[in-house]
Amino acid sequence: MASSMSINVLFSFIVLFSASCAVSYTIQDQFYQCITLHSDRSIPFSTAFFTPTSNATSFDSVLNSTALNLRCLEPPRQKPLLIFTALIESDVQAAVMCAKELKIQLRVRSGGHDYEGISFTSALGRSVPFILLDFAKLRAIKVDIEDNSAWVQAGATIGEVFYRISEKSKIHGYPAGLCTSLGIGGHITGGAYGPMMRKYGLGADNVVDARIVDASGRVLDRALMGEDLFWAIRGGGGGSFGIILAWKLRLVPVPSTVTVFTVPKTLETGATKLLNKWQHVAHKIDEDLFIRVVITTANSTEGKKTVQTAYQALFLGRTDRLLEVMNHSFPELGLTRKDCVEMSWIQSVIYIAGFPSNTKPEFLLRGKSLFPAVYFKAKSDFLYVPVPETGLVGMWKKFLQEDSPIMIWNPYGGMMGKISESSIPFPHRKGVICMIQYLTPWTEGDMKTADKHISWIREFYEYMGTFASKFPREAYVNYRDLDLGMNKNANPTFLEASVWGKKYFKNNYDRLVVVKCKVDPDNFFWHEQSLPILPFKFGQDGKSLIH
Ligand SMILES: Cc1cc2nc3c(=O)[nH]c(=O)nc-3n(C[C@H](O)[C@H](O)[C@H](O)COP(=O)(O)OP(=O)(O)OC[C@H]3O[C@@H](n4cnc5c(N)ncnc54)[C@H](O)[C@@H]3O)c2cc1C
Ligand SMILES: *[C@@H]1O[C@H](CO)[C@@H](O)[C@H](O)[C@H]1NC(C)=O
Ligand SMILES: *[C@@H]1O[C@H](CO)[C@@H](O)[C@H](O)[C@H]1NC(C)=O
Ligand SMILES: *[C@@H]1O[C@H](CO)[C@@H](O)[C@H](O)[C@H]1NC(C)=O
Ligand SMILES: *[C@@H]1O[C@H](CO)[C@@H](O)[C@H](O)[C@H]1NC(C)=O
């Protein structure tokens, strides 16, 4: 493979060079020719390549297919020149070689849930044309219960992963996100938290191997890539180090029966006092229990606009013990047996994702989200100190000014506090009470509407700054937020990128940059918030600096 590849490279150089002398081929044509030359098989253009000129309708529908944030499909966002849907893993290698050869940027999309859509459009305008490599067809999953593991290709959704595990065993699971349409490819590169995080940590804490394509087009597994790079890809953010082909996940035990509940409280029924109390208990309570708070606006019984806080939980055990835990640690919620529903773990995945209770697990194979594709802007914060009641009252006032705002408070503690900050790049560990996500969705595509909602969320974020973590004000890299700053050119400095890099990774930022320099010295893997390289090279041992 390797030698035929290099002959192909040489050959395609000759072809491309002579071609460019004769007629002016577009970059799309050149990329297609290059891929065909690198591939052992013939790929008819129409089966895997989509451009706005060859067929605008199919290009748009492929581009839209997993684009969750419609805001990122509107101008001034720039769309790809071409979408290449990889059909086999060596297509990914070919795409890297060809993009390098043609000096064109490559972006990778697995599940398309990036909050700023940088996996499928560019926020940098026309100056940086790019090709999109789509993983939608690389989604094989191989579960090995004996080995307590699963190999999963990057294009699979986590809902598919959960389903395939449950198909083989009712007492195995995997701790990852709540929204079942997330792509496992991007999801784990940022951490991947979910309702079992207090018991088992993040998805990225439970990865034992990976196969990636590096900037030279080589396929590397954990042994070949080495521990530094294997460390970096588990939480250091997508699109900086290489392309994930597949993850090897370590499965975790789940009880055959778990319990879920949702208990709503409005301002009129004591939401403020209860949220205050929650901040003191939710991160300290039994590790089998995860109670998040989903906060929205609602109509009160008097028809007035109010705030609703929904306490939504997964308990890794049965109702009897859950009631004991709650009675002991959080009686203020007033949980009753009637509120509790026992079910299998896979059914709880469907419940927490918000699908109707009669939804069959097979539904997860359709890769659908309950969260519709809408225009939205989101941000995140970490709390180490509870927001005082007066702060909550001020927060509600601002919250009620927006049309349909959402806040989700996710409790930490348990296993999250036991894993060290440098174990993987995800640094938000000991002492965190909860992560807060702010989100505002809207349905019209015009700029004026977008500006209005984005202004609201920026102001809200400013208000919350009083209570959130400081120096740095931490943020979750999987809730990508370009307001925190972005690369404006091909070679941002260490200092420029540290502005958001420290928020996402704290002190792990430095080590991430060192790994980046070693594995991608030409900065091939680049996007609005990719990690920077340093203007000097590293020695063979990867440690000493040669100026
Ligand atoms: C509705 C919704 C719910 C969410 N819920 C949760 C949750 O419960 N828990 C949680 O932790 N997060 C959650 N997230 C955030 C989610 O984890 C991130 O958006 C994640 O990056 C999505 O991965 P993806 O593959 O779907 O996204 P993509 O948009 O495909 O990719 C995201 C990033 O990773 C890069 N990337 C994609 N594929 C690869 C690859 N194969 N190799 C290398 N880099 C790649 C992309 O270039 C991009 O930078 C949620 C997001 C949404 C929109
Ligand atoms: C473009 O693609 C769509 C669907 O993908 C197809 O129905 C249509 O016939 C194509 N148009 C042309 C001109 O090939
Ligand atoms: C794709 O999405 C854009 C933006 O929402 C929309 O205008 C367009 O009609 C969609 N096209 C297809 C084919 O789905
Ligand atoms: C509240 O009531 C108004 C008017 O009856 C309605 O338009 C709105 O959708 C309701 N909001 C919610 C969150 O139910
Ligand atoms: C809750 O705990 C109290 C004592 O702390 C006890 O008296 C009561 O019976 C318990 N209630 C339930 C439902 O377990």
Folded structure, characterized:
The protein is α+β, with helices and mostly antiparallel strands. The chain folds into four domains: 97 residues, Uridine Diphospho-n-acetylenolpyruvylglucosamine Reductase, domain 2, CATH 3.30.43.10; 113 residues, 2-Layer Sandwich (Uridine Diphospho-n-acetylenolpyruvylglucosamine Reductase, domain 3); 191 residues, 3-Layer(aba) Sandwich (Vanillyl-alcohol Oxidase, Chain A, domain 3); 61 residues, no CATH class. It has 17 helices and 20 strands. Strands 15-12-14-13-17-18-16 form a seven-stranded antiparallel beta sheet. α2 crosses α5. The longest helix is centred in the first third of the chain and has 21 residues. The N terminus is likely disordered. The structure holds flavin-adenine dinucleotide (FAD) and 2-acetamido-2-deoxy-beta-D-glucopyranose (NAG) (4 copies). The site of one 2-acetamido-2-deoxy-beta-D-glucopyranose (NAG) has 3 residues, from α4. The site of one 2-acetamido-2-deoxy-beta-D-glucopyranose has 3 residues, from α11.
State the gist of this model:
This protein is α+β, with helices and mostly antiparallel strands. The protein contains 17 helices and 20 strands.
The poorly predicted ranges are: 1-22
What's the total count of β strands? 20
Radius of gyration: 24 Å
- Global mean pLDDT: 93
End-to-end separation: 36 Å
CATH topology call of the largest domain: Vanillyl-alcohol Oxidase, Chain A, domain 3
Helix content: 25-40%
Largest sheet: 7 strands, antiparallel
Number of helical segments? 17
Domain unit count: 4
Strand order of the largest sheet: 15-12-14-13-17-18-16
CATH architecture classification name of the largest domain: 3-Layer(aba) Sandwich
Bound ligands, named by name, code or SMILES: flavin-adenine dinucleotide, 2-acetamido-2-deoxy-beta-D-glucopyranose
- Under CATH at level 1, the class of the largest domain stands as Alpha Beta
Shape: globular
What class would the helix/strand composition place it in?
alpha+beta
| Percentage of residues in strands | 15-25%
GO molecular function, one term: FAD binding
Protein name: FAD-binding PCMH-type domain-containing protein
Organism: Capsicum annuum (Capsicum pepper)
Signal peptide: 1-24
